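User: Need the bound-state model for zinc ion:
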Amino acid sequence: MTMISRRGFLGSATAVAGAAWMSPRVLFAQEAQQPDVVINGRKAAATAKITTQKLRGGVYALMGSGGNIAVLPGPDGKVLVDSGISTSRPQILDALNALSAEPITHLINTHWHYDHTDGNEWMHAAGATIIAQEKCKARLSSVQEMKAFGATFPAAPKGAVPTKTFGEKDRTKLNGVTLSMAHYEPAHTDTDISIWFAEADVLHTGDTWFNGFYPFIDYSTGGNINGMIEAADRNLATTGPDTIIIPGHGPIGNKKQLQEYRNVLVEARDKVANMKQQGKTLADVIAAKPTAQYDATWGAGFMKPEVFLGLVYQGV
Ligand SMILES: [Zn+2]
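Assistant: Bound-state model below.
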């Protein structure tokens, strides 16, 4: 191939047809379009250790790659809630194969964020139908901005996009367990859903609950602090004292811990709203340390106290 024809070829619309033979370069280019948070997350997830926790009624939790994953194995094939980060595929497959031999047939996404959906593509290729709220599909199908991280996320590859969607509620029975899915009012994002494994009395809250840590709230895609509190109230109203609750992040928990989390959010919201009403700037609020009594523990996770206060301030 001469220089001229090569340049002509690469510059033409048919360049896409050459993707197969030049795939390493194309893949590198796609990788480069990902924001740092994804590139770094994938690097870390490649060596992440996956822990399996047996819950109840045939439901398990897989923890260690992005958001917490729920698994319900059985004759209908494995049903998963969230797909973790793509580079953890070998460890996730090992953990799944240790439970049973069935393939993954159903994958439900709690919301669009990459740490819950990055594994969608390989799980779909392995046979899973992807189910999500309709806004989750819309966001995964297009470029998304996350201003809090200064990040731009490209549209997910076609195989990663949910094909079965619903608006407010959906229900299905698989492996003898009724799965009730319900959309939250905008909370962490505007795509959040809960999944209740009815007979097992296990609830997956997605990222409406960070157990023991200040939560991230994604205002860029519809989230807000008041919605987070309303979602926590709904989670409390729909669970009993014995319900096993899978948070989006943090250890598997219960209603008592969920109540503590809700109280921390309400106290932070009320204090910050009060100060903002008095004309205090965000810098004033951060300097006043209104959540000081919680910061050592609740601010030791993903969200530092000052970042969390900024997210609260933005929404009051
Ligand atoms: Zn999230």
